[in-house]
Automatic annotation (TrEMBL):
This is NADH:ubiquinone reductase (non-electrogenic). It comes from the Bacteria. Signal peptide: none annotated. Residues 383-436 form the External alternative NADH-ubiquinone oxidoreductase-like C-terminal domain. Belongs to the NADH dehydrogenase family. PANTHER family: EXTERNAL NADH-UBIQUINONE OXIDOREDUCTASE 1, MITOCHONDRIAL-RELATED, NADH DEHYDROGENASE. It holds the Pfam family Pyr_redox_2. It catalyses: a quinone + NADH + H(+) = a quinol + NAD(+). Keywords: FAD, Flavoprotein, Membrane, NAD, Oxidoreductase, Transit peptide, Transmembrane, Transmembrane helix.
Length: 464
């Protein structure tokens, strides 16, 4: 659909109401951190909000890897969007996918999810797009079938089934070499998600599954953490990276550094080191946690508005998070770069606090416009980085204060509990973590049928 390059309505900072007799229509695309907090920030305002997502729940993505390792159940890290806003009569939730944007008519064009009816286009006065990102396989989408990620709930459940099924296969396998392949787990990417994932697999193998099998020894498994850089957690200070690596090694995780993945198939990964030498590592279970690319909706907006786009697909927005030439369209979160005062584009970290702060900012900016004012440019307040490695082990860099060990782990627990949506989920997760800490057990070790085809993998499936 072609975009009208002229701003529709008053210029930046002005009210874009086209009909004074009705409430201002705000459409929010995406029920993640950014979209959720934008909608929350507009509760009570004289606006009609339509929140559109292709899932009917908000996923607390920072804990999805714990679903993948059986530490938490899906319902403990996800919360129905309708339940979040059931007391807010000015918020309407639609389950649909985005087919496109008609910026001239100011409409969001939708398509149905599954067998649901096809929705009508949704008109807007203000559009907020917070569609997020997904993992990038660096041009090798064929690897996705063999190396699932944990950014979505569905994929986290796939990873859980593959990990647990690998132990079951090892129990059935008579050949020691093939058994070793089943007991080798490769996690690609040593950022926070990769580090946390590798640590959880190690604890699952060495603690939770101890004594569960008669032939295979889960504790003998190899957990490899593959990273192209020269250290784990490159976003942290080197001293904390070194402490995190030591904690990983104590858990039984082997960091494989300065190694780039050049191939992934159903039986292993092929790596290339700094000297261009290649080697193959047999591993039946590979988890992908390396690199992200913006939602395809970012590319649509860039094409419609003529905005710049970077190699990761992020669209460049103005300092107030609006699209060039379209002050009525905001975009935020992992799918955008923000133009700074000097004209250069700033890429913020792809973490929840960025999306949360941008969602809150957009809500304040929309409220200011309704009053005939304008909001100052967006400014990100970096509150620090946290990563947990395992039981009572974590690292934290909070405004220059470096923490590690039990204190960092406790900080990580409290921060994640605070940001979880829903009191019930906070209570359930706290109880689950307390029981797990006391018993070293995991209560969600279920092998479920995954959404994708697990060709060549064990066919053991149970009802969730």
């Amino acid at each position: 659909m072609a975009a009208d390059s002229r701003p529709q309505g008053p210029g930046r900072g002005g009210d874009v109401l086209s009909a004074p007799e009705r409430a201002h229509r705000v459409v929010i695309v995406g029920g993640g951190f950014g979209g959720l907090h934008a909608a929350r920030g507009l509760r009570g305002a004289d606006v009609e909000i339509t929140l559109i997502d292709r899932r009917n729940f908000h996923l607390f993505q920072p804990l999805s890897y714990q679903v993948a390792t059986g530490a938490l159940s899906p319902g403990e890290v996800a919360y129905p969007l309708r339940a979040v806003f059931k007391r807010n009569r000015n918020v309407r939730v639609l389950l649909a996918e985005i087919a496109g944007f008609d910026l001239r008519r100011r409409e969001v064009v939708l398509r149905s999810v599954g067998d649901l009816p096809t929705p009508e286009p949704v008109p807007y006065d203000t559009l907020i797009v917070a569609a997020g990102s997904h993992y990038s396989y660096f041009g090798h989408d064929e690897w996705r079938a063999h190396a699932a990620e944990v950014k979505s709930l569905e994929s986290a459940l796939t990873v859980r089934s593959r990990i647990l099924a690998a132990f079951e296969a090892a129990e059935l396998e008579r050949d020691p070499h093939r058994r070793a392949e089943w007991l080798t787990f490769a996690v690609v990417g040593a950022g926070p998600t990769g580090v946390e994932m590798a640590g959880q697999i190690a604890e699952l193998a060495r603690d939770s599954l101890r004594g569960d099998f008669r032939t295979a020894d889960p504790g003998s498994g190899r957990i490899l953490l593959i990273e192209a850089g020269d250290r784990v957690l490159t976003g942290f200070p080197p001293s904390l990276s070194a402490k995190a690596e030591r904690s990983l090694r104590r858990l039984g995780v082997t960091p494989v550094l300065a190694s780039t993945v050049v191939d992934v198939d159903g039986t292993g990964v092929t790596l290339q080191d700094a000297d261009d030498a290649t080697r193959r590592i047999p591993a039946r279970t590979v988890v992908w946690a390396a690199g992200v690319t913006a939602s395809g909706l970012a590319g649509q907006l860039a094409e419609l508005t003529g905005a710049e786009k970077d190699r990761a697909g992020r669209v460049t927005v103005e300092a107030d998070l609006t699209l060039p030439g379209h002050p009525e369209v905001f975009a935020l979160g992992d799918m955008v770069r923000v133009r700074g005062r000097d004209g250069t584009a700033i890429t913020f970290p792809g973490v929840a606090p960025v999306a949360i702060q941008q969602g809150r900012y957009v809500a304040k900016a929309a409220r200011a416009r309704l009053r005939g004012g304008a909001a100052p440019p967006f400014r990100y307040h970096d509150k620090g980085n946290l990563a947990t490695i395992g039981r009572a082990a974590a690292v934290a860099d909070i405004k220059g204060i470096k923490l590690s060990g039990f204190l960092a782990w406790t900080t990580w627990l409290l921060v994640h509990l605070f940001y979880l949506v829903g009191f019930q989920n906070r209570l359930l997760v706290l109880i689950r973590w307390s029981i797990s800490f006391a018993t070293r057990g995991r209560g969600a070790r279920l092998i479920t049928r995954s959404a994708d085809a697990d060709a060549g993998r064990p066919a053991a499936h149970l009802n969730d």
